[in-house]
Amino acid sequence: MATIITVRDLTRTYQMGEIEVRALRGVSFEIDRGEFVAIMGPSGSGKTTLMNLLGCLDTPTAGEYALDGLAVERLDKDELARTRNRKIGFVFQQFNLLPRGSALANVELPLIYGGERHTSLRRDRATQALGAVGLADRMEHRPRELSGGQQQRVAIARALVTQPALLLADEPTGNLDSHSSAEIMALFSQLNAQGITIILVTHEQDVARTARRVLTMRDGLLASDTTVIQ
How many Cβ atoms sit within 10 Å of the Cβ of residue 143? Predict the structure, then answer.
């Protein structure tokens, strides 16, 4: 199976006044295309810093990060932005939907930002993405007309519409009740079964168990890398 992520001795240091904070202290791992990986760890463990680096939202102080064959640590800000738009789909705890736009309009947004000018193509791809998350019959509904779980499904469709190499989810069930959380995690499993690579950042054990592999961070280091027995 092809490797999609390679991380070698990744470090990230922040300067806070006179204090140097070593958020990551040399992390190494690989993730293959089609894997479903959860990243766990307590507050201050480095998992959020690692997510920001994997999502091309930040660059490492030292070390190497290759995403889909691209050496991320060498990219400037504009190249990082292009990489985020083309290769990564983001799902966050907050749904971040435009309240006045329909589900379809919200899902089309990344295509508009990406420069896709053909309205029919944008609509077709957004329709397909909404169908993939089970919302084919809710496309014209606005966020306030949808449940929390349905709003997160719209956010997932929006992340999928650009056909990214990687789906990166940060605490995606944090604002949902237990029933909706279970439905969203079942959707992630379904998408992964279709071959989509997923990295999930969470502090919840039951959410992490849905993944096939769990990376546990502690004190800026990778404390464990375990395979989940389904």
Answer: 20
Token pair listed for 12: 């990230």
CA distance 68 to 229: 27
Residues forming a β-bridge with 168: 90, 199
The sign of the torsion formed by the CA atoms of 210, 71, 12, 15 equals negative
What CA–CA distance (Å, rounded) separates 114 from 92? Answer: 20
Listed residue (68, 80, 39) closest to 172, CA to CA: 39
Closest CA to 171 of 96, 106, 104, 111: 96
**Per-residue pLDDT tens digits for 61-73:** 999 999 998 999 8
Specify the length of the chain in residues: 230
Q: In this structure, are residues 152 and 172 in contact, taking their beta carbons and an 8 Å threshold?
A: yes
pTM of the model: 0.92
142: left (phi over 0), alpha (psi -120 to 50) or beta: beta
